[in-house]
Amino acid sequence: MNILIKWYYRLGAPLWFYPLAGKLIPWVAALFLLFLIPGLYMGLVTAPADYQQGESFRIMYVHVPAAWMSMFVYLAMAIAAVVALVWRVRMAEIMIISAVPIGASFALIALLTGAFWGKPMWGAWWVWDARLTSELILLFIYLGILALYNAIEDKTTAGKAMSILTLVGVVNLPIIHYSVVWWNTLHQAATVSVFDKPSIHIDMLIPLLLMATAFKFLFLLILLLKMRANLIEQDVHSGWVKKIILDKQAEMEKEHD
Amino acid sequence: MLFSAHQLSCIRSHKTLFENVSFQISAGQLLLVEGKNGAGKTSLLKLLTGLRRPDSGEVHWNNLNILNSESDFRSHLAWLGHQNPLKEEQTALENLILLGHIRPRNTNSMISALKTVHLGHVKHKFIKTFSAGMKRRLCLASLLIADTPLWILDEPQAALDKAGIALFEDLAEQHLKNGGMIIMTSHHSVNIAPEYIQTLKLGQESQ
Amino acid sequence: MLFSAHQLSCIRSHKTLFENVSFQISAGQLLLVEGKNGAGKTSLLKLLTGLRRPDSGEVHWNNLNILNSESDFRSHLAWLGHQNPLKEEQTALENLILLGHIRPRNTNSMISALKTVHLGHVKHKFIKTFSAGMKRRLCLASLLIADTPLWILDEPQAALDKAGIALFEDLAEQHLKNGGMIIMTSHHSVNIAPEYIQTLKLGQESQ
Amino acid sequence: MNSFLTLVKRDLLLAYRSRGEAFNSLIFFGLVILLFPIGISASEKLLAEIAPGLIWIAALLASMLSLDNLFKEDFHDGTLEQWALSHHSLISFAWARLLSHWIITALPLIIIAPMFALSLNLPTEAIGVLIISLLLGTPLLTFIGGIGVALTTGLKKSSMLLPLLVLPFYIPVLIFGASAVDVSADGWSAAGQLYILAGLFVLGITLAPFAVATSLKVSVSQ
Amino acid sequence: MNSFLTLVKRDLLLAYRSRGEAFNSLIFFGLVILLFPIGISASEKLLAEIAPGLIWIAALLASMLSLDNLFKEDFHDGTLEQWALSHHSLISFAWARLLSHWIITALPLIIIAPMFALSLNLPTEAIGVLIISLLLGTPLLTFIGGIGVALTTGLKKSSMLLPLLVLPFYIPVLIFGASAVDVSADGWSAAGQLYILAGLFVLGITLAPFAVATSLKVSVSQ
Ligand code: HEM
Ligand SMILES: Nc1ncnc2c1ncn2[C@@H]1O[C@H](COP(=O)(O)OP(=O)(O)OP(=O)(O)O)[C@@H](O)[C@H]1O
Ligand SMILES: Nc1ncnc2c1ncn2[C@@H]1O[C@H](COP(=O)(O)OP(=O)(O)OP(=O)(O)O)[C@@H](O)[C@H]1O
Ligand SMILES: [Mg+2]
Ligand SMILES: [Mg+2]
Questions:
Q1: What 3-state DSSP class applies to C77?
Q2: CB contact under 8 A, E41 and A151
């Protein structure tokens, strides 16, 4: 436990986090490509066409991972919100605010791809069905969090307010996930489950899982980039940024010599 | 009883208002916070009450950080800010009753407190018909019915006329004599026996 | 130039605040309205500006009732109430420009007026980051750019620190020297050469 | 507890003193419903068809607009600061305000809703469900809205943010509330929708005051 | 004239600074329209049928709610008092405020209305009439509403009174505006309704500022 707390606070220190993130970024980017390329190839080329949906089902390889990620990102934010509120770790707040636009983008992608998919499948871009509505609500919650943070000038206050709102929004996650169970809807029921045998052909499943993993690394990649940017932006006036700039200058001078 | 601040600093919109402010007061002492307009007096008082968190430093009540022993500290504190926490649509007495619920009560009766601040004859009038000074007096009355040793007051004399200021000074001196503590700001001289008073000057540089 | 009040009286919620108030001031004079909290000082000033109608009596500017020669009177008047007519979302300079449009302008530049009240260095800052005293100073600056002989001011010194009060007294004395007139209220002593000052005491009965 | 009751009493008294304010949301509610027959020159059948949704939307809008006053006055006159610094917990303050706000703004609206429903030709059988759904739903609206208000109350320009913050949480309430009335107007059982509303009600009413109290603490520290 | 332009410029600048506020009525407008498909689970045909009325009612409500801010800030911070005591007439002040308020709150709404209209399946032919009717009608709403606000702005609890005061005058505008769109959606000419709106527009826009200025003078003297 003690180690955990120590680890926490070290991760909570910008001076420590900033260079670490810098080192991680190329690796995460490499992992992202490693999963993306075979995932795309298998999904778009080798996977068999669906007997019912034809080729249009291939949009699934973007839709489903994006939809999953829109929820995963939110979950990660909610955990960070607990950390931020209980232990007052500022890095957790930075993480949330950096993750919000990413999560919102995933939600938007899920909505758009879903709509494009829905037109041939259901004959309508949009229906007011439980899953679709709750996903739309998720997008609004993301936007609300972003707007709230930007509206409050004092960023300490803004961080706290944002964390509270993030936690309140968690109720929406189970609603999205179980909407297909609780209500009979047009939308597909769960096809992949941890406990059951998946109800999807293995040739379709593998690229889907590859894409889902690739999306996770994409999230991590953008998150690290954004967190670094947000940190620098908020702390321009503080000591550690100056120190990093000085270190960088010293490094460059060494290279010149 | 001991109230102390250690190395407080406060930053607002990237400007350091003050740094390394420390002091310590005990029973029967008054701390007068002075400073120019914009020196950060109001901001300092908010740190001392715990409404704002200091950007660095700590505030202690009986040697415990007030952020850790919140409820204990608060049951000893009476705060009066720039504004008057009064409802225009209620009478003076109704307002006082509500304010009485906020802090631990002592044994003084509401009516006698109102009389002390010369509002006895208007206790059933609505606040909206009060002038600026009358409202401020009613707030002072709320201090008299509270059983809290520590008063933190932001410009308590504002809007009071000369009689009102003299009254406040009387009440404050009484409170100090009974072993209370006061922290307050003021732009004017305070007529209280100097042996009670400590002064803290904020913001030496030109604003 | 002559400003005079004749037998003014004012009634608020069935209570007569004052009756038979009369005075007369001419160029280079200051009328200091004194009185306890709730005596009716603010109410009197509102009668003098024409914002409220007196319940009886008349106010004259150059021997004409101000209610009849409204626009002439108003182009000679600068009024500053309890509140600061400033917009939080605008900078000091933008606010001053707008206030400059309300009254006839004299030849002073805005920038020099801001410098006079020691706000030159924050002229491009938003009002919402100003402290109480800084806002009040900005309002004083608006008087400096107006070409109006008659100033009517309700507690102009409120919220000002000592330096601010001294500054105001300087400005007021300058205005009087130039043949202006001032009517103002205050709870504090006013440090202006006594030959300029007339005093009017409101509300003799105990409030 | 004592101070909780005092607060509720204070609020109700204040509301009574300035009666107008209490009728405010009621009038707005009536207005929205009233404007429709005028604006859409509709047949009775059409009106009856949209009646459940219309009443619920009117209730939602009225509730959202009345929120603005929930903590504003207490914030600006410093009362909130006083409560935040008192030895009582802010949760009881939040509870008291939310409860009395609901009594003042939503209860009258529920009482008068059947009248509007009938005038819109909603079948009499659906009236009971309408009332139950409003009784379960409007406290939710007030309590969820309270979180949004508490978060934005310190801001000068909060009004724009509020709808954005609370609407996502209002929509589910609207969906279940309106559809409960809708199905019962069509002669079906609305039990499912009402159970869900009841579940949300319990959840909201137990958790929201904590969120409100925490948010108020944050707002007051600005 | 100079001070008139300065005032308009100030208002637009302020609105730009606190952008949120300007979007306020826009968001509310969108909200009301959005809630309907959610709340009444309606068929596309039904939606198209109520679309003209719905859009007009949403515009009316958005306009009415935004009124609250028309003179409130100027009243409370003493700016109104200053203008009342200036040697300029209050009429130019009133004109400037009304004009900039319309630009800030109504113009964006008119620009975005066609989008909502299309999403509600309003026939494309009716879009033109919709815009013209809004262009003629919303200034009327603002100017008439301005009189109500000016009358009530000094009162502490003004919000309740306002709808009661202005609504009777809003209803004719709503009737002609909505029916203009309605008939043109059915393929008829809306010229009659638009002429009446235009007449009201001219009348309102010339007379209202006088009434507003007079009412403001009364309010400020309290
Ligand atoms: C705008 C419309 C749509 C939205 C907002 C949407 C939203 C979502 C969401 C949020 C998920 C993740 C659910 C979870 O993990 O619990 C998901 C998964 C999925 N969606 Fe969609 N969807 C839309 C349209 C469609 C359409 C038209 C289809 C195909 C007919 C489709 C097929 C799927 C499938 C197969 C999954 C994976 C289910 C699972 O394994 O859980 N979606 N969608
Ligand atoms: N909300 C805010 N945002 C940014 N800066 C602020 C804010 N409030 C106050 N300040 C700044 O903090 C400084 C101190 O303000 P504070 O109100 O503490 O001063 P004060 O000493 O109480 O002044 P006064 O005597 O005028 O009351 C001021 O210079 C002001 O510009
Ligand atoms: N809106 C009102 N309705 C009824 N009575 C009022 C109203 N405003 C003020 N009064 C009464 O008028 C009297 C004078 O008020 P006024 O504000 O003029 O006093 P003042 O001399 O300016 O006091 P202060 O020194 O406190 O500013 C007060 O006794 C007050 O009760
Ligand atoms: Mg201060
Ligand atoms: Mg006064």
A1: strand
A2: no
